Amino acid sequence: MAQGAAAGMMGGPDVPMIPGEWQPVRACVVGAGPGGIVTAKVLLEHGFDVTVFDKYQRVGGIWAPGGCYDGLANQSALRIFEFADLPNRLHFAGAVDTQRYLEDYAGKFGVLDRLRPGTEVISVRPVDGPGRVGAAGWSVGSRAAGDEAAQVRRETFDYVVVASGAHHHARLPDLPGRALFGGTVLHSNEVRAGTFAGRRVVVVGGGKSALDLVTRAGREAASATIVQRKVNWMVPERLLLGLVGYKWILFTRFGEALLPRYHDPACVRPIDRVNDRVKRALWRLIARDMLISTGLHRLPKELRPAHPLPFHLAHAGVMPRGYARAVRRGVIAAKVSAVEAYTDKGLRLATGEEVPADVIVFATGHHKIFPFLDPEVQVHDPAGRIRLYRGIVPPGTDRLGFVGFRQVFNNIMGMELTAHWLARHFRSALRTAPSEQEMRQGIDARLAWQERVLPGSGGYDFGPYDIHCADELMHDMGLPSRRAGNLLAEYLLPGGLAHRYAGLTGAGGTPEVGLATGGGVS
After folding, report:
1. Residue 414 host element (H or E)
2. For 344-376, how does the pLDDT look when each residue is reduced to its tens digit (9 = 90+)?
3. What gap in Å lies between CA 204 and CA 210, rounded to an integer?
4. Which of 337, 362, 387 corresponds to the end of one domain?
5. Residue ranges making up the domain that contains 280
6. pLDDT tens, residue by residue, 37-85
7. How far is Cα 132 from Cα 14, in angstroms, rounded to an integer?
8. Which of 362, 388, 408 is the last residue in one of the domains?
9. 408: nearest Cα among 450, 465, 447, 476
10. How far apart are CA 143 and CA 149, in angstroms?
11. Is residue 515 part of a domain?
């Protein structure tokens, strides 16, 4: 293939052509969590010269040592938390085993050789040049993590992928009276071994992390209290009265067909057009089973979810073992209320009740922000929602993509498919190439759907639509979305699993391995 043709395939029309220079295009990946390492692996397969930056010393993101709260556990059943090219036999694994799998993956596919551990990216700025933002590449500034006095190294890359994770920038409520409280206040990320021992612990939040931590406090602390504004639905490890693993229900095409119709008409199959009254009737049965299988049916009515399924499935996690039993036995005190203020003894609730505490943990989520990214790159709307086409690329910006911000339930497969989509986008090899205006219209339509079907998802969370999200990306790549040999397997067996999507790099044709570039270091 001629050099000009190769440039058009891999780099788009604006890749600089420098006579006499012929080398792989340079790509920077920010973050070495699951999204970062799988993106690096896929880009390497497509011929990119990849450099991966991560502030931790080991790969894994939140699974790396110090990446999240002590005791973080994986809520994935067998064969869910895995990439297509490396089977993972772990079942509801702990952080250590999960990190080991990610490190094995990064080592097997050459990503560790491209990693700069303990290195923090502090700036990503477009290189000045004609055309759209990023058309001439990106200047990336980095330094030793945690050392603000360290020398900043600036390098130029042709492409940048942001895979910095969605669980690193703590969101804490700004409550009055903080100076009154003399105890310890933490975000969930900051909990470490021994934090709870013998102390009165109050956990604020209603998600998976909050339930994890208060269950642990019930075992270790002098007292444990959870305060939540509303009770979220939680998915049991096993459904149908505890007989069948959740992936055999929630990770099938038939199971997803019971959800409200997906926003992209290209991904809607005949089975998705089941009558809404039939769907509502089936969801009532599923909701009853979930209450029984999680043990929530044995708690007082105010400690059960108030909203019908599937409306709030976007906020669901897998129910921690022992939580419902601990609440039922009084080991955990559960209160449904907003938090109003700190007091000298603990917290005052909107109900007027005061909850005493020595340690207050806010499991109140994270900001999906990118402090290193040039403000010229518009990623959020005024409401704070992430505005990315397909949850991957910002309209009006070239050679920049995001991986890990098209979140689906409990599944890293979505990150792997995103990486394949993005590699083809960088190579101008997608089946279709929407204009900037079409991208913006697509984002508007998808955000409107999310607000209706997945309220509070912030443009980031696609909830339990694992297979539909996969279908959408496969359709864009011109690859078949049907992944099983027969219809029964296609619709009734778990389909949102990575091993069904093996071999995608070769499926798009043999990637070119080099083109002209102007990357450099200063």
Report:
1. helix 413-426
2. 999 999 999 999 999 999 999 999 999 999 999
3. 7
4. 362
5. 178-362
6. 999 999 999 999 999 999 999 999 999 998 888 888 888 988 899 999 9
7. 10
8. 362
9. 465
10. 9
11. no
